[in-house]
Amino acid sequence: MKNLFKLTLLSSALLMVVGCSEDYLEKEPSEFLTQEQVTEAAENNADVLAGTLAGIYSLQFQSESGGTTNHDDFGQKGYDIYGDMLSGDLALSVSSFGWYRADITEFQAPLDFTSTRNYMPWRYYYRIIRSANLVIDALGGADAVPEVEENKYILGQTKAIRAHSYFYLAQYYQNSYDPNQEILPLYLLPEDENGPKVTAREIYDVIEADLNSAITLLDGFGRAAKNEINQDVAKGILAYALAAQGDRWQEVKDLTDDVKGNYPIMTAEEVARADRTDDGVDNPTGGGFNDVSTAGWMWGVDLTTDSGVGLVSWWGQMDYFSYSYAGYGDYKAIDSGLYAQIPEGDVRRNQFLNNPASSNHLQPWGKFYDPARVPRGPSQVITLDLVYMRVAEMYLLNAEAAANLGMDAEARMALSTLLDERVDDTSYLDGLSGQDLIDEIYLQTRIELWGEGKSYLAMKRNKATVVRGDNHLSFVGDPIPYDAEELTFEIPEAEILYNPAISTQND
């Protein structure tokens, strides 16, 4: 991990390249590395490209990477929180500081294109895309196959992270998948800027091409750390992108079949604190979701002192046992209605504080926490890591694909393989088929992956309607369909102001 940060310094200036503001209208500002400089340097020192890629990875957890000083601006996990809240599965149960309340939980941002919360994910993902374009171009372009093995792996990872960014943009900025709707500008070269919106089909074609190429390029890649994308992670991202289109289930099943047996499912002891009591006293073993070395994690990042992560972070918003908003009055909890659907005896009930008399009721005290277990504890995140993808996701996607293909027996088998680690008896699955089975898979996806940033994606795939439980602060009990305007961001004002090819929301 320390080497990663040293390499990042080689090209940290690259990552000042941004989207949707005047900052990138000047093609070669003197304080930034240019396309030509990167290409020339890479010819003499491969570490420049490795360092640039490391810098792109570091943007995933860097504060202010969305172009603001907001305390919800800290990369990928910040937008995972947005999605989980918009889906309704993550409740803001107490709000003392106001983060997320008006703009996200009360839907003001998605309905107001001038809101900075429309701008932040747009700027963040396009910033990654533009930096990735520099690396891809320096290695010969999208069709290149570098002769040097190290460069081949760098190209594969960079294509995958570009595809990942376009996928999340497509998810957050399109109400529902319509291949013919123009949704986003498409930038594939370093010199591309100020482009018009193109159709979702064009965006997804690039996503698929990038990921299929990445899967080929990453064959044989032995990554140094889990923050790097390997072949399995690329297949996982592609499975999500195909599933979002609704008619690619056989491909989703094939991809997840390839991956799901390559990592062990997190055990009951790994997923939750054991023997929780209502007064918050804990058995000192089990759970945590705080260690990237957990075998069931496919993709994540090891946060160290070099990372410089503190209050403005995912842990700073979610964990009661860190110095955090979650400890001092902006409480995040599982939706009470979703929690009520977790049966007695399911180990995942132990992930949450079950004490209705406490203002901390249903906070994830048994899932996400600093291992020291000191309430409102360390101000610097040094023993906590971030998870981006788990193998459990591959089992759930596999079950979802099989069920949508009418392969009920295979769907039940994939689902029961996961649930065998969560409940004592999975025989009830034998009586499920068709839509009932699909609904159960969706429910188990929401429970298993709660707080990990996957609920929004699952809601859109399943065309679900959100109904908030009684521990939300607003819109309790109101049915909100997956394609509602208030669940989807608008192209931000900054893009309309500075991109002459997009002058209104309807361009």
UniProtKB/TrEMBL annotation:
Q: Which InterPro entries match?
A: SusD-like_N, SusD_RagB_dom, TPR-like_helical_dom_sf
Instruction: Kindly indicate whether the keyword Signal belongs to this entry.
Output: yes
- Organism domain of life: Bacteria
Q: What is its main location?
A: membrane
Please list the residue ranges annotated as the SusD-like N-terminal domain.
113-218
List residues of the RagB/SusD domain.
Answer: 383-463
User: Which Gene Ontology CC terms are recorded?
Assistant: cell outer membrane
The record's subcellular location field reads: Cell outer membrane
Q: Carries keyword 4Fe-4S?
A: no
Keyword list (alphabetical) reads:
Cell outer membrane, Membrane, Signal
Protein family according to the UniProt entry: Belongs to the SusD family.
State the name under which the record lists this protein.
Glycan metabolism protein RagB
Species of origin reads Salegentibacter mishustinae
